[in-house]
Amino acid sequence: MTRAKNALAEHRRELLRQMLRIRRFEEKCVELYSAAKIRGFLHLYIGEEAVAVGALQALTPGDKVVSTYREHGHALVRGIPASSIMAEMYGRMNGCSHGRGGSMHLFDTERRFYGGNAIVGGGLPLAIGLALADRMRGEQRVTACFFGDGAVAEGEFHECLNLAALWELPVLFCCENNLYAMGTALAIEHKQTDLAMRASTYEMPAWPVDGMDVLAVEETASHAAEAVREGGGPHFLELRTYRFRAHSMYDPDRYRDRAEIEEWKRRDPIDALVRREKISSDEMTVIDKEVAGEISDAIEFAEAGELEPVESLTRFVYSPGSPGGGPP
């Protein structure tokens, strides 16, 4: 009994460490973006850490993940090294997408992480295609597809849920409902704001989950993923969460009331787990120091990387041997 309790406590501390990794990584990205070390668009996951950390506990290394442009947290938890992600942010060739994707297009086939997608809802068709391939091969795998509440207004959302249900595909749909599609509030965009209820009209199990509670996310996602893996068809999770920062670093964030943001910050998923598990300040200091070291190493790795030579910029754009495509 004592051994089991210790194992559970250790697991929950690992959940805390993973959430803190994401938080500190994103905070450092803000600094680097402000210093013009990171360019382009940057969408932060601060506040939503419990979703990625909790949901991805349900997957095996053989399962697949399709994400959004707010995917740094998913990539870190999935096992892509922070150094490889940071180098990609810098646009360096030692990044996980060889410097060609940047913040919104993290990709790692070894870890079955298939993006990172800049198009709202753009990962949904990819996810059901991956799931269809697994089913045709007779492989017991789950494809977890993350997307935001804004994607629910897109046509591919309804097309993909319909096909997944019709063909009984092994997809775990993870809707990160942070209440805003860029600057548009959910209640302004949708008459029916219960997104799990909407998904259930496609006759698939669909549950709302407190996305600020990592343990609730882990428990529900594990139950859903197991059902999907055992042939139960697609399942849908509406993960009710909140981003503490603006939509992106370009966003002045004038559409939200400050009091609303502060109210959600009182539900910070990291603080909540610290209180629940009675983590001491000394323990937090040790974890924070470990995470800080990892991020420092990641920055050093990124800054040591090289930019792609101008001569090879058309590589992967044209097929080998074609005009402008370079040698095979």
TrEMBL record:
It catalyses: N(6)-[(R)-lipoyl]-L-lysyl-[protein] + pyruvate + H(+) = N(6)-[(R)-S(8)-acetyldihydrolipoyl]-L-lysyl-[protein] + CO2. Residues 18-305 form the Dehydrogenase E1 component domain. The keyword Oxidoreductase applies. SUPFAM superfamilies: Thiamin diphosphate-binding fold (THDP-binding). It is an enzyme of class 1 (oxidoreductase). Heterodimer of an alpha and a beta chain. The pyruvate dehydrogenase complex catalyzes the overall conversion of pyruvate to acetyl-CoA and CO(2). This is Pyruvate dehydrogenase E1 component subunit alpha.
